[in-house]
Specification:
By secondary structure, the chain is an alpha/beta fold. The chain has helices at residues 3-15, 18-25, 29-43, 61-82, 98-103, 106-115, 128-136, 196-205, 219-225, 236-242, 275-304, and strands at residues 48-50, 57-59, 90-96, 119-125, 142-145, 154-168, 178-179, 190-191, 214-215, 231-235, 249-253, 259-267.
């Protein structure tokens, strides 16, 4: 089988657009159509459903199944092409939500660079839905998301329940260590959705029939625009990274505190060539999370210490 046919199909399956596929491969649209038809004829199945103008396409069941084979073939072909010129490295590609990637995983990346010279790591910042899609398609090997979504081909493991604190500049909070969430003014809130578990807590303890000052997905922006009237909630790892740059008050929550849950997800049938590297990376993550739980307890104790 001609590899060019498989490559064209793999790109088309990602773009779902003949024009974009042609641009990515530097081909004419007619060549893309010809290669797809040639591949379908050779396999004896229809891989793509298309309308008359070929503007709207979607994968058939055969197409979805063959895509996993095509991606694995692509992966192997890339390794063959680079085999003679590249030193041997185990490859792992991960997709991580922004706040975890920037504020929690930086130490993991440093450790890999320092101690694992035979690992080639590719890290992408993605939204949760994108992570699940790319894990299911085996475009990435491991994902780290804030929601659990049940899918037959996906293995989802809870790796961390991260405690969260109130962040504010309000003078009324300056001498406090803890706060009751039900006493907060919801109209002064900068709202960040930290995942399903956090959202359930938020809707239970904070009035959700009001309008927050701002809804955002950026912790950094929240710190930058915070004024004395505003407040928001963020995980320990985020505030620990940013509190040195911004003068803020950090308060724990009385009784039931909010949690930001992080899930490690992977395909139950990963690419064979990456299985050892994926297993090693998961072990590294689990080891790091054990240390993170200990650090969080120390961080909490530090917030409760009397001010000097």
């Amino acid at each position: 089988m001609n590899y060019e046919l498989v490559e064209t199909f793999a790109v088309l399956a990602k773009t779902m657009n003949v024009t974009k596929t042609a641009e990515k491969l530097f081909l004419s649209q007619s060549t893309v159509s010809y290669r797809l038809k040639a591949l379908e004829d050779e396999l004896g199945v229809t891989l793509v459903e298309r309308d008359r103008g070929f503007k709207h396409i979607k994968l058939t069941d055969h197409g979805k199944y063959f895509l996993s084979i095509a991606l694995e073939w692509q992966n192997i072909n890339d390794k063959i092409q680079n085999f003679s010129s590249s030193p041997f490295k185990k490859t792992v590609s991960i997709g991580v939500v922004d706040s975890v990637n920037n504020y929690l995983f930086s130490r993991i990346y440093q450790e890999i660079l320092r101690n694992n010279s035979n690992v080639q790591l590719t890290a992408k910042t993605l939204h949760t839905a994108e992570i699940y899609d790319q894990i299911e398609s085996r475009i990435i090997d491991i994902g780290f998301a804030l929601n659990h979504i049940t899918l037959p081909q996906i293995e989802s493991v809870k790796i961390l329940e991260e405690d969260m604190v109130l962040v504010t500049k309000g003078k009324d909070f300056a001498n406090l260590k803890e706060v009751d969430p039900q006493e907060l003014n919801p109209n002064n809130q900068i709202f960040i959705n930290w995942g399903e578990d956090y959202l359930n807590w938020h809707n239970k303890y904070i009035q959700h029939n009001s309008s927050p000052k701002l809804i955002t997905d950026s912790a950094l922006l929240s710190f930058e625009i915070l004024d004395e009237d505003s407040w928001f909630i963020a995980p320990y790892s985020v505030v620990n990274k940013l509190r040195e740059k911004f003068p803020v008050h950090l308060l724990l929550f009385k009784e039931l505190a909010p949690k930001r849950t992080i899930y490690m997800i992977s395909n139950k049938n990963p690419l064979y060539s990456n299985r050892d590297a994926i297993s090693e990376f998961k072990q590294l993550i689990n080891h790091y999370m054990i240390a993170q739980v200990r650090w969080q307890q120390e961080f909490k104790e530090g917030l409760l210490k009397p001010s000097l």
